[in-house]
Design a protein that fits this description.
The chain is mostly helical and about 170 residues long. The chain has one domain: P-loop containing nucleotide triphosphate hydrolases (Rossmann fold, 3-Layer(aba) Sandwich), CATH 3.40.50. About 60% of the residues lie in helices and about 10% in strands. The protein contains seven helices and four strands. The strands form two sheets. It has a two-stranded parallel ribbon. It has a two-stranded parallel sheet with strand order 3-4. Helix 2 packs across helix 3 and helix 5 packs across helix 6. The chain starts with a helix and ends with a helix.
Length: about 170
């Protein structure tokens, strides 16, 4: 959450001439409800099951997909994601994530209760990151999300292309 997956994903997709897909947006279309409504009406566990189902059905070969931050941490989702593509973790410090999330205008179901207390939000982010990073660190590529400029973006795209080429040569 707040690492810049959607913003950076769109730029990478454009440079690769791939489609950009935001998994949460696709789930909202499929369910005809916002992620927030799904969380409120059916709970996080139900939402995670929807994510798993979506990943199982996903077939597009030329796409950059921004998953939700919890998607790789549920069920066998990380394996599903890795079977279907190259995984990238945009690493950021808890403080940087907290600053971004605290200033964000859009609503995020997991942090709504912390939106008015930055210290509580920081504690939540630190806890979630500690839970999720063991999954995130299994990514094919890891980049620091702070200060990604055009040169760094070129490096990321080059790394993705090289990783794709290595995977293809193994097949």
């Amino acid at each position: 959450m707040g690492s810049g997956k959607s913003t950076l994903g769109k730029k990478i997709a454009s440079r690769l001439n791939f489609l950009f897909i935001d998994m949460d947006v696709e789930i909202e279309k499929q369910e005809n409800k916002s992620v927030q409504e799904i969380f409120q009406l059916q709970g996080e566990q139900h939402f995670r099951a929807i994510e798993t189902d979506w990943l199982k059905k996903f077939e597009n070969k030329n796409a950059v997909v921004a998953t939700g931050g919890g998607a790789p941490c549920s069920e066998n989702n990380l394996q599903l994601i890795q079977q279907k593509g190259i995984t990238t973790y945009l690493k950021s410090s808890p403080e940087n994530l907290t600053n971004r999330l605290f200033q964000a205008k859009n609503s995020r179901p997991l942090i709504n209760q912390f939106k008015h207390d930055k210290n509580e939000l920081l504690h939540f982010v630190q806890t979630k990151l500690a839970e999720r990073e063991p999954f995130y660190f299994k990514s094919d590529l890891i980049f620091d999300s702070l200060d990604i400029n055009a040169e760094k973006l070129d490096e990321i795209v080059k790394s993705i292309v090289e990783t794709i080429a290595k995977r293809i040569s193994k097949v």
